[in-house]
Amino acid sequence: MSLLEEAWEEALEGFVAHRERQVVYLNPKAAQLLGVNREKVLGRPLILALRDHRLEALALHGGERLLEVRDHLLLVRALPGRLYLLDQTEAQRRLKDLEEAAVTLAHELRTPLAGMGPLLEALTPRTRQEKEVLDLLKAEVARLARLVEGLSPIRPGPRRPVALEEVWSRLEKLLAERLKGRRVEVHLPHTLSTDPEALLQILLNLLDNALKYGQDPIRLLSRLEGDRLHLEVRDRGEALPEYEPLFLPGRRGSHLEPGQGLGLHLVRRLARALGGEAYARREGEENVFGVSLPVD
Asked: Do 211 and 166 lie in a common domain?
């Protein structure tokens, strides 16, 4: 047995190799996740090992999806002749625990935040500089309040027509220090009927992510595609090995290192609450992180 085969025999990730719709190899972890006897499926049709037409379609056509397969939640990635299976069942259990803890945290933070607003309103600035600082503090307290609400089950607020340029002007103020010295190109000509606060949080998280991990120029743009409006943040950072796992809690950075990253996870939750979806991919020389939202 070669060193490579020995490594796959011990791997915690399932691996299936196939050629011309026949199983060439599958490791013990893949056999466990798929619930098959590998001696009985080696050299047999691929569908006998996978026993799921969704998995077979991915294996044959490529792509990446999160699928529930025989009591396991699997992150499946397919490349020509290769299928990788990563068990996300335990991660989803931890996610549920995390969301329950987040709801508790949100409950505890609401009271002090609610008291800070009136205290700031009671202050009377004496100079223009003091007024600017007070306005910034009010905006930050309001943003913290929105973040706290974002920790709870997502419930979009009232919708109204929102000019995206209006959202950008708010983003500029919130990220003023972070934007200094950075090259950010903005093209947001559209208006969307949506919850403006949820939309602000989506774009804030996407842009913050690009400022942390991306490379200039960073492009913030909107484009209409059928009945969906796509809002995207594009940057010239290095190509990432995987994109879909970045939307899971605890994934951050350019190498998917473990962490406390919740930004993209919250983006997806907000996008889905608004009837849309979040996505990430590589296009040409750019990393693209965006959401598609219904126009109506």
From this structure: yes
